[in-house]
Design goal:
It is built from 16 helices and four strands. Helix 3 runs parallel beside helix 7, helix 9 runs parallel beside helix 11 and helix 10 runs antiparallel to helix 11.
Length: about 500
């Protein structure tokens, strides 16, 4: 844990009196029942051992307090041996609370959206929300599985990655509604991450009380966040609708914990994929509500066939990167879930192939699948080489990947009639390869923070590629379709989206 006074959390033994701490390090907290003191807001999280996470008084910066809360899970993991945390608050900054609250107090009632909601680009907002929410689902899966496997170091790094993801989402909310709204959102959002972590702890420890409390907290979260979003969007996003979607999100993540813990890895990975995919329509709906709730209309291309194709390609290519990370890490660890991870990656390949076929035909789809499967196999071979410390096999896998880069770039350039240039595509896939290989190297060295950052970069890179590919594919289909076909959604690209 860092010691930067602006945002650091530390865990102190409850047997030590708070007065033993230097005055400037004493906890500063506010109750969750009242209004948010934006200038002095802090958070206390209670470890299930003998320590309490205490927030050091911040030097104020935008979103600093809520970003600091994001390391609460990691602080408890580090200092109490993989426990869970419970959100906590206290009125007295000299007396850290020692008992977890049973239910989170609602804060949405005190949130007053600014009179002038800042204008945003609706298309960019949709794309960013889809990407960040999808990443949230994957990272939460990794956090809970690390807890089930009792890997404290991996859980800490996953928690840190989730903290960054939460801060990015909060910054997006803040760009529209302001800093106070961002802080409220971040506190609720990371609170539900903590509750999901606690549920996995209850499953691992066979503690029904912990599981039940986590479920109660999550029920409160779905109510609070849905009402917060309804208020922020001036009812453009109705609370009952959002609550139903959030409950589905929570249920999928809880069910994957249960499945993974029971050894049903195929179901666990199927639920991981469902949870990830579910984030994309949610991101689209939230983006639409934020824009229309602010008094603006949606642009014509917000959900055009081209935009739908970009979203679908981003979903599938982003998932490919994340599932490749899962499979490589399982392989190098000789984990029992490796066959299921590989099967999930194969399922993703089939869906991308179906999209290629709907646009370019069966012959092109066959060529794509052979190339794509070979590059996945090369990544797996590289992972096996690392596990066996086999330099020759490692070099052979790298050579196969180099061959794929050139061949696949040529395939896509030819398929899009040169609209995607082969040299640029080759460079793009060299980057894809480099990021995935570097992340598994870092993972093997137990440099989990670097591994998570590189996997994030690999994920993000896929969305940039999806945007370029969607434009090129759309232009290619439009050139081959009857006049107006692609624009009206008749056939061509619309069929690709539907079948994909």
């Amino acid at each position: 844990m860092g010691t930067d006074d602006r945002s650091a959390l530390t865990c102190v033994d409850m047997r030590d009196t708070p007065s033993d701490l230097p005055r400037r390090y004493r906890a500063r907290v506010v109750t969750r029942k009242g209004g948010v003191d934006a200038a002095e807001m802090g958070t206390v999280a209670t470890c299930t051992g003998e320590g309490t996470v205490v927030r050091r008084r911040p030097i104020r910066r935008p979103f600093a307090a809520s970003r600091a809360a994001a390391v609460g899970v990691a602080a408890c993991i580090a200092l109490a041996g993989l426990p869970g945390c419970s959100s906590q608050s206290a009125a007295d900054d000299d007396e850290p609370a020692s008992q977890p609250t049973a239910e989170p107090a609602a804060v949405h009632e005190h949130m007053s959206p600014p009179a002038d909601v800042k204008a945003v680009d609706a298309v960019d907002l949709r794309a960013t929300l889809e990407q960040l929410l999808g990443q949230h689902a994957i990272l939460t899966v990794r956090l809970t599985r690390a807890r089930l496997r009792e890997d404290g170091d991996l859980a800490q790094s996953a928690d840190a990655a989730l903290g960054k993801n939460t801060a990015d989402l909060g910054e997006l909310i803040g760009s529209v509604y302001g800093a106070e709204a961002a802080e409220e959102f971040e506190r609720m959002w990371f609170g539900h991450v903590t509750d999901l972590f606690n549920y996995s702890r209850g499953v691992a420890d066979e503690d029904e009380a912990v599981k039940s409390q986590a479920r109660r907290q999550l029920d409160g979260y779905t109510t609070d966040l849905s009402q917060f979003l309804e208020a922020a969007t001036k009812k453009a996003v109705p609370a009952p609708v959002v609550a139903a979607e959030l409950r589905m999100h929570v249920d999928q993540l809880l069910q994957q914990v249960d499945a993974y813990a029971s050894g049903d890895y195929d179901r666990a990975f199927a639920l991981e994929r469902e949870s990830y995919a579910h984030m994309f329509p949610l991101g689209k709906a939230l983006a639409a509500g934020i824009v229309t709730g602010g008094g603006a209309g949606l642009p014509a291309d917000f959900d055009s066939p081209a935009r739908q194709l970009q979203s679908r390609l981003g979903l599938l290519l982003g998932e490919h990167a994340e599932l490749a990370v899962d499979a490589m890490r399982s392989g190098v660890s000789n984990s029992a879930d490796f066959p299921a991870a590989g099967a999930a990656l194969d399922g993703n390949t089939r869906e991308i192939t179906a999209m290629i076929e709907s646009v370019f035909g069966a012959a092109s789809a066959g060529s794509f699948q052979a190339l794509w499967a070979d590059h996945i196999d090369a990544f797996v071979t590289y992972t096996q080489a690392l596990a066996a410390d086999d330099a020759d096999l490692e070099n052979a896998a790298t050579e196969r990947l180099n061959g794929f880069n050139a061949d696949f770039a040529t395939f896509l350039s030819t398929s899009t009639q040169g609209r995607l240039g082969a040299p640029a595509l080759g460079d793009a896939f060299v980057m894809h390869e480099d990021l995935l290989l570097r992340q598994i190297n870092a993972y093997v060295e137990r440099d989990y923070s670097t591994a998570h950052q590189l996997s994030f970069d690999a994920y993000q890179h896929m969305f940039a590629l999806a945007a370029q590919a969607a434009t090129a594919i759309g232009d290619t289909v439009a050139a081959q379709s009857p006049r107006g076909g692609a624009q009206t959604g008749a056939g061509g690209m619309a069929a690709a989206i539907e079948r994909g």
